[in-house]
Write a sequence for this structure.
């Protein structure tokens, strides 16, 4: 784990290449294509934006060390992706990225946030549980070509915000 301070900022089209490199390292079996990121970023700006994509950048080197994305549809939001370069795991960056997405879920006025996570990805599941996500079901064979099941998790945004506010008040 490295402890360099990183800066979170909106993902832009020129980040797609370095993000893809990280994506292929983290998700070798089912990495997103450049087209998928282009298509998501096309909905990330302007008054009718429905996406939030964020990158974590090391300001000393300009290296992208993490990224995450959220899609909103009505009062539901979906965590589309989240990843942190291995040498930064365990330093709280995943939590920072997820916090950013949840703030935007609130800004998009979503009541619930859903996500899918591989059943064998206990590290990510623990991160989500810490934020109050609860398992609500499975999607069989969701991850192809490996035919791995997804655990579906849900967070009620209002509860998350209230807990966060209460937590801050008692600090
Ligand atoms: C899942 C993932 C995003 C988590 O990122 P991360 O930066 O390691 O996340 P965090 O550091 O915030 O939290 C992970 C652990 O570090 C610990 N941690 C958090 N802050 C810490 C700190 N300041 N010092 C030491 N440890 C810390 C947490 O306790 C947590 O452990 P626990 O949840 O087992 O209790 C990352 O492992 C990853 O990119 N995995 C591969 C891609 C992936 O699976 N994405 C999810 C797809 S659904």
């Amino acid at each position: 784990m490295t402890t360099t301070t990183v800066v979170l900022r909106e993902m832009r089209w020129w980040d797609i290449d370095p993000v893809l490199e990280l994506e292929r390292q983290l998700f070798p079996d089912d990495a997103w294509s450049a087209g998928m990121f282009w298509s998501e970023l096309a909905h990330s700006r302007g008054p009718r934006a429905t996406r939030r994509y964020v990158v974590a950048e090391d300001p000393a080197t300009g290296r992208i060390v993490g990224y995450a994305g959220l899609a909103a549809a009505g009062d539901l939001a979906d965590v589309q992706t989240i990843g942190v370069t291995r040498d930064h795991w365990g330093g709280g960056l995943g939590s920072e990225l997820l916090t950013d997405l949840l703030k935007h879920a609130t800004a998009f006025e979503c009541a619930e946030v859903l996500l899918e996570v591989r059943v064998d990805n206990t590290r990510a599941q623990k991160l989500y549980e810490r934020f109050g996500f609860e398992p609500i079901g499975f999607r069989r064979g969701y991850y192809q070509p490996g035919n791995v099941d997804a655990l579906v998790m849900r967070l009620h945004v209002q509860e998350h915000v209230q807990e966060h506010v209460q937590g801050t008040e008692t600090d």
Summary: Helices lie at 16-26, 34-41, 93-107, 122-130, 157-170. The radius of gyration is 16 Å. The chain has one domain: 7-170. The domain at 7-170 is CATH 3.40.630.30 (Aminopeptidase).
